[in-house]
Amino acid sequence: MNVLVLTGSARRDSYTRRLGAALAAGLDGALAPRLTVLPFFDQDLEPAPPAEVETLRAAVAAADALVVVTPEYNGTIPGLLGNAVDWLSRPYGAGVLRGKPVVAVAASPGEVGGARAVVALRTLLGNAGAEVLGAPVTVGGVQSLLEDGTAERVVRQVADALDRTVPPATRAA
After folding, report:
1. N or C end of the chain: smaller count of CB under 10 Å?
2. What range does the domain containing 46 cover?
3. Per-residue pLDDT at 170
């Protein structure tokens, strides 16, 4: 299965990006480019979107499934990730997220692991037309998980969500 992992942190070596890289490796998927290359969503640009938007849209369209990993900023997702979803949800009613299987993951150094952010992310993805899979995945104490190499637990959670809900026809043989 062709899995693309999007991460919502602007920081190059953020916990979210490191967790996303571990997920991409564990799922034999790909880590999407940093979302910082995208311009702010602007309806005036919709008729001829910037190349960075088209590149991301093509990567999402080519993926069988997405894993979206977000940090929690002030109890919700960062604007950077919301901006990407705005671009991917367009044109209205026909964006590349429509019907795309997506697993939402939130990570935080705190104990609740971004629980509020994952709820916001799942809502946003659902509103954009994605098929949000499985139960919310939250990763508390993400820095320890990355340091002690126990990211496999999260990889298994995400893989299980994908295995239970993505039709076998879309899986690699």
Report:
1. C
2. 3-170
3. 52
